[in-house]
């Protein structure tokens, strides 16, 4: 092979350049701390690094999500803690009201005034916002105020029951909110199975206990009425089934247990004939209504609303089959002309009367009840035919210390002019009769808000305490759930951190440079370059001209 001077020069130069390139690569690796500077350096390793980086980025996003969920849950938890403190104070005030004496109106009104402030405070908590201005209890409708009120004691939930599921792990989500309906609205009344109450117009001093279910297999979610036939005997009527429960009459003993259909309650005090106590299947009631109703009772104990009935025993009291029965009904500025026909039975006459009420303008609620709204917002009267006596029962709602409910029946007519309309309400007055238990043709019957016995307000306070306890239990249960979710987030954080550490270690094994090895390699490459340079110089000095 012929070796020319030019060839020797070019090869020496190429060797120097290669050694410089190798040294530069080692220097770049040391500067970056990486042994993979481009995918071509290690295609398989580079692909793995891309996958690991994506996984680490996802874990970082999970961490951000976990932080957001934690913030939301902590905000909700602190809001619920404040809400429970409000309810605890209302509970203390309720007990105080029960101990002051029902006739001490001034004290009760002072207590009611503080309760109003607490109700407003609780309402604000239910409409709490987060740092973005979103309502935390509105579900998915976070830009809509959770609760509103019309000022007449009616509260409306405007959100939905949506719950935000936040991804905090590759296969794990956490719920970051609870709806206002769940927390403040879907609260069972009474003991959670049933609720009890007394008739507002009871003349006796009887009270009914909260009671309990003693036989779950026999328990039915029915509505019942305990009616006192006289001071010593009562009967239990199943309003849902429309039948008397068990034997009748039953003997009454003060504070003794009354059991039926798996239920046990006690009635204490001195009931009288006509007094009624209700045992109704537990229903949902929002906490605001519970507090508002209690405030109303404390502000105007014994006044405002009325309950009573008219009619019953039609055939025995002169309303023969086919008789035209008519009367004018006046309620809160609304006057109706009621025209009915007596039926062949008392049951038929009661049905004809409710039909006539609807024809005159009363609204059929399609559940056996019929409602007439007064001219005053929030004031109404509801009618219902008693399945046992066939009397038309009524109750008013919305009465208070400034708005007193009353009901007028006037211009009573009957084809035979011998009908006697039975009545029951301790505030009745009849224009032409000394009796307040019946009206004859031409009479005017006036049902006015009366003053129930002291036991009535005591019963209302007891019922409110039961409902407040149910509300507090619901909030505590939600807080327990929040605590579980926060623990879940902490656990997932630890898991994510462990995964992140492992992935970073794997990535380090793939791409990170061994500095000791790299420095040794750089020293080696530097020496090689120096050798190549010195060799090139020596060879360049070799020439025949040096020997001429």
Strand content: 15-25%
Count of DSSP helices?
Answer: 8
Structural class: alpha+beta
> What Rg is obtained from the alpha carbons, in whole angstroms?
42 Å
**Largest beta sheet, briefly?**
7 strands, antiparallel
Can you tell me the overall shape? Answer: rod-shaped
Percent in helix: 40-55%
Let me know the average pLDDT.
85
Oligomerization state of this entry? single chain
Number of strands: 25
Amino- and carboxy-terminal Cα gap: 25 Å
Low-confidence spans: pLDDT under 50, at least 5 residues?
none
Cross-sheet strand order for the largest sheet:
17-18-19-20-14-22-24
Structure description:
The chain has eight helices and 25 strands. The chain has 548 residues and is α+β, with helices and mostly antiparallel strands. The strands form six sheets. The protein has a seven-stranded antiparallel sheet with strand order 17-18-19-20-14-22-24, with helices on one face. A five-stranded antiparallel sheet has the order 5-13-8-9-10. A five-stranded antiparallel sheet has the order 16-15-21-25-23. The mean pLDDT is 85.
Keyword list:
single chain, five-stranded antiparallel sheet, 8 helices, 548 residues, seven-stranded antiparallel sheet, alpha+beta, rod-shaped
Could you give the topology of this structure?
Layout: H1 5-32, H2 43-100, H3 105-126, E1 147-149, E2 155-157, E3 165-169, E4 172-175, H4 180-185, E5 194-198, E6 207-208, E7 212-213, E8 224-230, E9 233-238, E10 243-251, E11 257-260, E12 263-268, E13 276-281, H5 287-299, E14 307-310, E15 324-331, E16 334-341, H6 346-360, E17 363-364, E18 369-373, E19 380-385, E20 392-397, E21 406-414, E22 420-424, E23 428-430, E24 438-440, E25 445-448, H7 454-511, H8 515-540
